[in-house]
Amino acid sequence: xxxxxxxxxxxxxxxxxxxxxxxxxxxxxxxxxxxxxxxxxxxxxxxxxxxxxxxxxxxxxxxxxxxxxxxxxxxxxxxxxxxxxxxxxxxxxxxxxxxxxxxxxxxxxxxxxxxxxxxxxxxxxxxxxxxxxxxxxxxxxxxxxxxxxxxxxxxxxxxxxxxxxxxxxxxxxxxxxxxxxxxxxxxxxxxxxxxxxxxxxxxxxxxxxxxxxxx
Length: 215
Prior knowledge:
By secondary structure, this protein is of the alpha+beta class.
């Protein structure tokens, strides 16, 4: 089956410039310099996994998901909980899973990945929940946080324990994190900062420079 690349060139050039609050006052954020994600994508997420179309999300404070989908799985891999994502995220997530994660798992463990532990998807909040920070890409449905994987034989690989753990787990996690850079615009994990020591953060931040940030 041939999968189409997303219509990334249709990204809105409108730059948000407001100070907003979501939830309690401790989660105030700014949207200055942020660019909303694209509305359109060429691949129907139902081709990529188990998916349910949602109505557009607009919190009125900067948080908005123009083309949201509730994903239950991708590339045959089940999510631990449904993930609400903008349509544009689903294709790179599928490609990363098929092109990097599954081959790396077969090489390291001799087994397929059957489950992903999802710890965050759409969430209207500041980056790292820090008051006054920019709005997180999670506020666009433009990011997913993954803390672990389940193998077909029942073994569980977690970012927190495996990153500095046994050789196979360590190699697997470092490879899939490295190769996520390119499919995604931002890749964070252990060593990036205190907030990402136990999971991978993957997002499609629409930077005007077009540069990736993988740290």
